[in-house]
Amino acid sequence: MLMEVVLTVAESKRLIGKGVAAHPLVEKALRDGMVIIARGSTNGSVAEEILGKELGRAVFLTGHTLPRGYKSRKRKGEPIGEIVLRRGQVVDGLTLGEAISEMQAGDVFIKGANALNYGEMTAGILVGHPEGGTIGAALPTIIARKAHLVVPVGLEKLVASDVIAMGEFIAEEFTAAESIPAMWPVTGATIITEIEAVEILAGAACHHLGSGGIGGAEGSVRLLISGDEDAVGTARELLDSIAGEDPFPI
């Protein structure tokens, strides 16, 4: 059985958020260990799905991309820092560095990305901070302590270039251009796109057919979903539930 669907960027973020919250690694860490949710637009949906409440996603941003010439307006509400959960309960009063230092094997760090080479399962994170930003602070501990890096990223962020090669190119050619961010390639992470989210939540296979559109479908992805009647029916109900998700507020 087959079905086709077009998801806007906002709908994709919501779908991915649901997929991350239901991933076995995340569920286990929520039950037995620690989960850290870094700030980001897709991670705003992740946090809402894990916490089961609205946050006001605009207050959970870090660096973000806007149309050329657009000036970001003042956000409504107080900014929210990284969210730390221990055995499913929010832990207040910890800095990001303190939370990272407490990570152990099996814990989960959730960090979004700016670029994706899906064929190689390599994500790219743009870094403007001179000391590596969030990923630079977290990755050594994640690797050394055998924790898990989960990367929620929409298929809208597929890139034509090799992410690792692009990181090398920027480092070689633009070392003096401070306005150009570095590219941090991430391999070996658990990457969750719309494809994995459908598979996790519905047990159906999901294929990326195309991207883009007009009239509000700019940046959208076109998906083909296949499976038995129950799996595709579950996928249909899931996707109907996120239809019309409001665009990101900013």
Compact description:
The protein is α/β, with parallel strands linked by helices and 250 residues long.
Descriptive report:
Helix 1 crosses helix 3 and helix 1 (9-22) packs across helix 7 (194-202). The chain is built from 8 helices and 12 strands. Strand 6 (115-117) and strand 7 (122-127) form a beta hairpin. The radius of gyration is 18 Å and the shape is globular. A 6-stranded mixed beta sheet has the order 4-3-2-5-8-10, with helices on both faces. It has a 3-stranded antiparallel beta sheet with strand order 1-12-11. The chain has helices spanning 9-22, 24-32, 41-51, 96-101, 133-144, 163-173, 194-202, 229-242; strands at residues 2-7, 34-37, 83-86, 89-90, 108-110, 115-117, 122-127, 148-152, 182-186, 190-192, 205-211, 221-226. It has 250 residues and is α/β, with parallel strands linked by helices.
Estimated structural class: alpha/beta
Mean pLDDT: 91
How many β-strands, per DSSP? 12
Order of strands in the sheet with most strands = 4-3-2-5-8-10
- Which regions contain 5 or more consecutive residues with pLDDT less than 50? none
Could you give the order of the helices and strands?
EHHEHEEHEEEHEHEEHEEH
The helix content, as a percent range, equals 25-40%
Quick one: overall form? globular
Integer-rounded radius of gyration: 18 Å
**Count of helical stretches:** 8
Report how far the terminal alpha carbons are from each other.
Answer: 39 Å
Sheet with the most strands, sense and barrel status: 6 strands, mixed
User: Beta-strand percentage?
Assistant: 15-25%
